[in-house]
Amino acid sequence: MPTLLSPVAARDFARFDPAKRSSDLTGRRIALVWNGKQNGETALRCVEESLRGRFADLTFSLIRIPYGIPEATVAEIRSSFDAAVAATGD
Question: Domain map of the chain by residue range?
Fold first, then answer.
């Protein structure tokens, strides 16, 4: 008799608490993290435009990452930016 297999992947991943949110981003450095998928950059630029309309003196940098962000890149973002917004796209 054939074996029946489920096509659903196991959901085994680490859980973590979300980052603390600041009520005022004035003067902050924001990383826009994009994995290169279509329309992700567009979404991030919309977030940038929205934040610029709400807070003064923001600095944004678009950081393109490969699939599966390297730990060295995570460390660089943590040390160089006050906040990060990530998008994938499609």
Answer: 29-87
